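USER:
Working in pairs, take the chain set out below, taking as long as you need, and write a paragraph about the fold.
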Amino acid sequence: MRQFVITGAAGFIGFHATLALLKQEKDSVVVGIDNMNPYYDVELKRSRLAQLTDYPNFIFYAYDISSLEDMKCLTSRHPDTTHVLHLAAQAGVRHGLTHPLSYAHTNLLGFVHIIEACRHWKKLEHLLYASSSSVYGGNTKYPFSVQDPVRHPLSLYAATKQSNELIAYAYHHAFHLSCTALRFFTVYGPWGRPDMAIFLFTKALFEDQPLTLFNEGNMWRSFTFIDDIVDSVIHLLRAPPFTAPLYQLLNLGSNNMHSIKEVLEILEHLTQRKASIQREPAHIMDVPKTQAGLDHQDLIFESKTPLAVGLERFVTWYKQFYLGA
């Protein structure tokens, strides 16, 4: 029997991945952990979690990966873990300016705790963990390739994610640990994070409140719909790289770029509202463009959901969840 551990199970990607795995792996044990921190609305996290607890093969612990005691409890309770999907992290780029220690605790110490647990799980087949497109920093060669140098992160968050990749490589080298890093590109969709632009814009539009638009919306992103991401995540989790190298870096995101301005225009159409805009210059930690170069893994990831369709699905969910519509 396979035993899966998913960290950040009440988070955005973690919730969707856990739900998909529970539906597909009915004879396996799926263990979710999440410390339910208040970085954003805890009630949203609880509502996500409530969608998972009806499954009889789901076990949840409110563990903190930066706590050594919590991690000891996890490893002792589930010694036969075979697959780990590590998604727990302190997210956000600008938040690092005011809360740097939360990134060190969760993204650095927490990652070491997770990979140490993986080293001691004798039946472990694969560690699949979230990195980020932010590791590319100010790279101006598009699309981004995993072969590109990543020496100049523009935020503390990006630096911690790059550090995760280096730590994972060291463990792969020393202990032959099979691990794969996923550099996610601007994932969005239902149950999304309230600190992301799509959520913030939608909320402001429905509440007739002003919204902040940086650099006139002239920043471009590889917006990637959550369902497309999860399909690839679940496939990759169950398909570890058995042949050398056991260490992989993969981009996971749409190859198509769209501007923040275009996103806002689509949301205005979907909500039937006109935005009241407060304009700000580009933030020092924001990169002007991200574009996912898929290299050889284009056989693994397929971006099937057009931006307008994905945004419509998000707005429909938002109206149901927050407005009762």
